[in-house]
Amino acid sequence: MSWWKASALVVALSLTGCGGGDSGGGDEAGGESTVSTSAPTTADPTDDPTEDPGEPSPEPTDPEQPQTAQSKPAIKNAKLPVGGVPEFDDKGRACFAPAWGGSELPAGVTITAVDFALSNSSVLELGSHSCPQGPACGPGSPFGGADSCYLALTKVGNGSTVLTVRGDITCESEADCDKVRAEHLKGGSLTITVDDQVIVPPEETPSVETPAESPSEEAPSPSSSDG
After folding, report:
1. Which of 80, 161, 222, 223 lies 20 to 30 angstroms, CA to CA, from 128?
2. Where is the composition biased (Acidic residues) (predicted)?
3. Nearest Cα to 113, choosing from 84, 87, 147, 89?
């Protein structure tokens, strides 16, 4: 009876050892199935389902090119109304700043002179001397504003002459140019009259009279005596 119990105990211990080995093998096999030795995979950002495929691309950061300035409306080579009175010195010379002779211009209107002309150069001469008061008038001079240019005038004779000034008028709008044409260009040129110029005639060289020769007295020839 004791031998049978001892044999049963040995068999039970043997079965227990075999069962433990099977269990360990199962755990080891299961561990190999869950561990990967391959390199980790990097997720592609394009596969992100949260990204909006319709999102616009970023705008370029290059600076914008400046737009070409549009030319303003203008009145070209207009005959300008001229005002002012030249004052001559005792030598018959004047530094005259021709002024705008029309009514007040709309805001933003500018005038650039292109020509100054006298109709009669036998009464006045232009540019015969310099004017220290300011710049000489000529093509490109501002006209009708706060800045003045000066015409050098010199009397050369009596009579009348007409000063005509032409210029380019630039406006802020076409409506302003229409208003200038209708209301501000009605004045005319400036007539300058000279009536106190003393005309000195050229000096005449007096002719030297040669004295008339007195008739020569002929000495009487000695009369021959009759023998």
Report:
1. 80
2. 45-54
3. 147
Angle formed at CA 99 by CA 96 and CA 104, multiple of 5 degrees: 170
Other C-beta atoms lying within 10 Å of the C-beta of residue 66: 6
Q: Give the single-character DSSP code of 56.
A: P
Domains of the chain: 74-194 (2.60.40)
For 45-100, write each residue's pLDDT tens digit.
555 555 555 565 656 565 555 555 579 999 999 999 999 999 999 999 999 999 99
3-state secondary structure (DSSP) of residue 165:
strand
- pLDDT, tens only, 15-35: 445 455 444 444 444 434 333
Taking the C-alpha atoms of residue 93 and residue 156, their distance in angstroms, rounded to an integer, is 10
Residue 216's pLDDT is what? 56
On the 0-12 / 13-18 / 19+ scale of CB atoms within 10 A, 28 is exposed
> Could you give the CA distance from residue 76 to residue 48 in angstroms, rounded to a whole number?
67
Based on its alpha-carbon atoms, the radius of gyration of the chain, rounded to whole angstroms, reads 59
Please tell me the distance from the alpha carbon of residue 77 to that of residue 143, in angstroms, as a whole number: 13
